[in-house]
Amino acid sequence: MKNLFLLLILLSVIFSASLAIAKHHGLAEPCAKMQDAEAQAVLDIVHDAVALVELKGEAAFNEFSLSQSKWRRGDAYVFVHDLNGKLLCNGGFPQMVGKNMYGFRDVIGKPSVKFMIEQVTQSQRKDGWVHYLWPVPGKIEPKWKSTYVHLAKGPNNKKYVVAMGIYDVPTEPCFVAQQVDNAVRLLQAEGLNGFGALRDRLGPFIWKGAYVYVFGYDGIMYVNPGKPLLEGINVIKLMDESGVKPFVEMLEAAEPQQGRWVEYFWPKPAEHRARKKHAYVKRISIDGKDYVVGCGLYLAE
Q1: Helix or strand or coil: residue 37?
Q2: Element (H, E) at 42
Q3: What is the DSSP letter of 2?
Q4: For 93-116, what is each residue's pLDDT tens digit?
Q5: What is the pLDDT confidence band of residue 300, given thresholds at 50, 70 and 90?
Q6: Which residues contact 69 (CB under 8 A, 6 or more apart)?
Q7: Which domains does the chain have, with CATH numbers?
């Protein structure tokens, strides 16, 4: 009986530790709840806009274009594309309505509209966030913009990409988790050939100071756009300033279906001082070999 009691205690501790990793500091799966109030407002407005498009179809676009309405929030505004990239409505830049934006690239070359369409058509969730550089209405200088996009189907069954963006929003946990999920889906489809897309600075997997990385259960770092000198290096024994071996923690936490969060200290790209970082990780198998796909964020940005 005593041994059974001790076993139950041990199982309870293991379960609690696993739960702490999964939901560490309130970090959760994408993207039901945002930590930033403005990002949450954008999420809510897009959901309302999707509901209106599904009710009224393109008749809703006139309402989105009104300057004094719920569809505008400071510098944020609702805009809509069709699945071919044609801009159908834009509350901030109405002069661009009617143009096909699929091939449009931001100031550093990211094809932002292409990313938006891919996010809502290739993701199982049919929504998500896209990050790119875009000017604030009435100004020239571009800023980092994070845009929430959601697929909508009008009464005539035509599909639309309904979106709204916010400038200089702090990196959200759900941004990180979404990109890991997208990277896992890419690697499942393309195998090791997908590593190039993860390194592409004009692709969706690198934005602001965030990036997706991949290392193997052999300890070798295969993809790391933030610290490219680590590629090809065995990182298993690396230890942060608190004595934690972050890559060991990630190996132990990573699972194929459910993402997990791990906390450690790590310097930002081009910095030497370590900061507290949280990484979201998943395990994936490619050609019989296991890898960890991860992305991190600094909560005190």
Answers
A1: helix
A2: helix 37-56
A3: H
A4: 899 999 999 999 999 999 999 999
A5: low
A6: 63
A7: 37-167 (3.30.450.20), 173-297 (3.30.450.20)
* DSSP SS3 for 190: helix
Direct distance between the N- and C-terminal alpha carbons of the chain, in angstroms, rounded to an integer = 51
Instruction: Return the amino acid letter for 216.
Output: G
Mean pLDDT over residues 210-238, rounded?
96
Report the alpha-carbon angle 39-40-46, nearest 5.
Answer: 90
Query: What are 176-196's pLDDT values in tens digits?
Result: 999 999 999 999 999 999 999
d(CA 1, CA 156): 67
Structural tokens at position 23: 């939901």
Task: Tell me the three-class secondary structure of 76-115, residue by residue.
Answer: EEEEEEECCCEEEEECCCHHHCCCECCCCCCCCCCCHHHH
Alpha-carbon span 21 to 135, nearest angstrom = 38
Question: Using the 8-state DSSP alphabet, how is residue 229 labeled?
Answer: G
Give the pLDDT band of residue 86 (cuts 50, 70, 90). Answer: very high
